[in-house]
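3.2 Worked example (two chains)
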Amino acid sequence: MKHAVLGLGGTVDYEIVWDTATLQALVDEVGLTEADLDLHHPVQTERDLVVSIVSFVAAGVGGERFVASSAVIDAFAARFATAVTLGGTGVRAGIAMAAFGLPSTVHLVSIDDNVRRLLPPQISYVCSAQGDTLDPHLIVQYPA
């Protein structure tokens, strides 16, 4: 294989560093109780996001949720140590290939300075966006 063209899409991910004390402070701040826990409640506010995350932890499961606003993700992530990374299967595959010196091209549906900064030079891209946008995904991994 000389040059791979990889999947559609890609994301900027905010990978938070788990901090039990910070999450507990948020639980206290928003007045979360066991009665509030709901894995399927829409996530429109930071409180809703805290409810969702704590619900997943309490159930001992993982999952994905749609968050109505990037501002909610920004506010939540700002409370934790956060790594800005690139996600999406095609982009992650391209990053892995680049580690072995293999070039690829990815298709992106959005782009911003984070993407341009974090994409390895071995990855070229085609982007269907009209301009720069940032709609980050929040990655939360809790200890088992």
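3.2.1 Second chain
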Amino acid sequence: MPTFILHTNLKTIDSPTEEVLHQEIRGIIARSIGKSEDFVLTIFNPNTSMRFGAKAGVSAYCEVKNVGVLSPDTTNQITGFITEILSTKLKISPEQLYIEFQQSERHLWGWNGKTFA
């Protein structure tokens, strides 16, 4: 049920890097939230039209969604890890990156034909 979505104006993400990102981000989110990696969904949307303010260059907008509470400590921890990974692997400057967190109640997410309620 935890979901990570990356929107970036990078034209492409090469397959080896993409696989590493899927693995690392899935692990970070699962450990930070305390849920199984088997239920973490990672989605990458390269080649998205975006510009961070008036600055040209690579930028990104990330979404982290979860059923249940995301504490300030948890969101801070995930922000640090994701910022580090994206700046290292994709050369996205931390100043060109937003991360939005969303928490939902169990009845607002469906999977396998029913909600989590």
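3.3 Remarks
The beta strands are 3-8, 41-45, 60-67, 97-104, 110-111, 114-115.
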